[in-house]
Each structure stands twice: as structure tokens, then as C-alpha cells.
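Researcher: Please translate sequence to C-alpha cells.
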Amino acid sequence: MWKQYLMPESIENLKAALDTAEGPTKILAGGTDLMVEIRNGKWRDLNTVIDISRLPGLDQIRKDNQDFIHIGAMVTHSEVLQSQILREFANPLVQACYRVASPQLRNRATVVGNLVTASPANDTITPLMAMDAALVLVSSQGERTVALKDFYLGVRKTVLKPNEFVQEVVFPALKPEQKGSFMKQALRRTQAIAVLNCCVLLEMDGESIRKAAITMGSVAPIIIHAPEAEAYLAGKKLEGTVIQEAARLAAEATRPISDVRASDEYRLYMMQVLVEDGLRELQNGTQMQKVPAKPVSLDTREGFHNIRKDEWDGATIQTTVNGETYVIDDSWDKTLLNMVRERIGFTGTKVGCEEGECGACTLYLDGKAVVSCLVPAPRAHLAKITTIEGVSEDGALHPVQQAFVEHGAVQCGYCTPGFVMSAIKLLQEKTQPDQETIKEGISGNLCRCTGYYKIVEAIEAACGKLRN
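Model: Translation complete:
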């Protein structure tokens, strides 16, 4: 997979690693994009992976005294959803992050990683571009700030130099008179790449629109604005005919293509629908009703251990799995899934899609439910891992496992460990979830046998047992 795996313990070490790297080198934060690309053979000659996931200070969300929001390179989508600062001052980004993948993937995937991947279908680019975001690029030669609109050169192409990394994304906090709506059209409710998406951001002057920004994704090689629609909205009231005309003008600015997800004709038609729906949301003030006040995170926030000097030799992984300590020196170039199953022998964690979509390999990494097929094994160094074998107590089934048996929630059983892991973490986080919350909690798990009814019933029953 890679010839060398580095975990720098400081920003200075990261700069030095980028300067001295030989051969193809990739920075890994959450790894949810890079690990899929490696598995699919895009980086067959990859020499070095530089894992920044445990660098101190890169996981901060803050608002400075000049009213600018700073989001560090290691801030995950899940952490965005938990941030009161972003809910108040950047709610279009919160709306976008809620539509990304599943809780397990949001626990690893970072906002900056989503930006750097540079796919025109990525969900966080549209709201951040509408909010005039910029990226702080850092190297041993210094740092430079690049506006997000100038960062992209084409599909998966950016101005980032080989020895640079993105330290943070910065943008002005939304003012009280500003309001925005993020809209996404996809083939499934969760775990789906956008067929297209858009963000509509308005600055109001009483009942009139002072300024508008409309950004659109998956309709051109990069995220684009709709300048004619933005100009048209300025000075007008947000009402029926104005909304319809602005949506029509926005769709005319697109340059969609046909691919496996949709035809160009469909995208052209649906972008008009999405922009119109976004404007109507702002008219009605319902844009934040799409995001629960406390979304499911499948994270009990146990924290993790930063890597410090001389704590890792680049090969030996010392980790705790189900309460036992293991020292492994031959898995540094594998995934966490492979290490847990093949090297340690906990085969309850299943190999499924190996792309993060089925959830069969779900386990807990430092208290977070993650899909282990997309986690590099070295991330387990000095970490705490729990697999399905570790959830029972005193040899008895966990109440969730027992409920799955009693309610017939198991058919072929292959997906069951992943569902059980998600359900247990959900009930640790939310003691009385309703059916919609339960569905949200298991949205990252796929079952090919059932209609999910008995799985939901089993989780409801386990909830009652745990309360008792």
C-alpha cells in the first residue's frame, strides 16, 4: 500500500517530512478518500504517507476578535455538527456536513480533506465558497492564503504545491442579516455522493436582498457561481416570481455532463429545482430544520493520544484491543481491519465493501465508531480499540446482541456485527432514541437481507432493557 508511513509529532516535523519526501507522497488526515483511492489502484507507486491525524492544535474551531472563523485541518464533519460556533455563524456548512456520508465516516473525514480532494461533487466546497472562505497553505518557505475560489484548477486539481499542506480554512462569520441554505440531490438519503448540490446565501436589508451568492456543485469541472442570478436578486424582495427567475438564471450558468449518476439534462433541470427550493427555504426560514439540534455522532468522546517524540519507530504498533495490549511489527502497511482480523484474530469485524459504505467493519477507535477498512493500521498505535468480541460482559451477550436474537434481527448475519456496534454506541450516546434517531444511527450500515424493520425493533427493545 505504501513503503513508508510517518506520523509527525509537530508542524515543524511535518514541514521537514514534506521537504525530504522521496517519490510520490500523500498527506492523510481522515483517510476516507485516500484509502479508497489506494485500494482502487490509483497510487500503486505511493512511497510515503504522512499521517497528520494526531498533530496537536489542528482540531480547533474558533472565532477570532475580527469575526473570522478558523477551522483546523483535523476538524471532522462530526465536530462541525457539534460546534455551537458554526451553528450560529456558519450554518450552511453545518447543513452540508449533515448530508455527508454516515456517522462512522463523519467521525474520520475532515472538512479540509473534503476541500483538498477537489471533486466538484464534494459537499463542503459550495457553502464555504459562498461564504468567501480562504485556505492557509503552509510549507517550510512560509505560508500563503488562497481564496477557495482560486484554489481549484479543475477536477481534482489544485494550486497546492508538493511541499505544502493546508493548515486551516478561514472565512468571515455570518452576520445576523445573512442567511444561507445548502441543498443536495443524491441517489440515496445517506452514503451517497451528490448528483448535484448548491448553496444559496443572502444578505438582507429589511425585506430586500442586499447581496446574493449562489454556488453550485457537480455541474462544471469546479464549483461555480451563478453571477447572473446573483446580480438579478440584488435589490429585490424574496417572493414567488423573483425566486423562479433567479433559479432559472442559476441553471443557465451550469455546464453539466452526463455520467453514471445522472444525465446532463437531468442536472440542468434539477439545479433549477434545487436553487428554487433553497430560496424558498430562506423565504420561510426553515433552512436549519433539516439538521437535528444534537445529531447522532456515534462518539462518546474519549479523546486520543498525540504522538510525541520517539513514541513511534515507524513500524511497531502498540495498541489495546478489547482490553488486551498487543505489540505488532508487521502491520504498519495494512488497514486497521486487516490487522485486527488477520494479525490479532478478531474476525467478528467483517470485510465488506472496503470502501466505507457497508459498515460491516465498524469498530470503536478511541471511543468513536469508525469503518476500519479506511483506517491505516498505524493509527492504532497507542490507541484503544473495541471490536464486537469486546462488547459483552462476563461472557453474557450485550443487551443489544440479545435483542437481535430475540427479535429475529439476524438473517445471514454478515452485517450483524457492524449493526450491533453502531447500535451500542448509539444507545451510549442517546438513552431514549426515537425511530428516526435509530435510523440515523445505523445509516452507515447496510443489510442485503432485510427491510431493517426487525433491526430497528431490536434496538428499541435493547433501549428498554438498558434503561431497566
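Researcher: Any highlights?
Model: The chain has three domains: 1-56, 61-290, 296-304+312-463.
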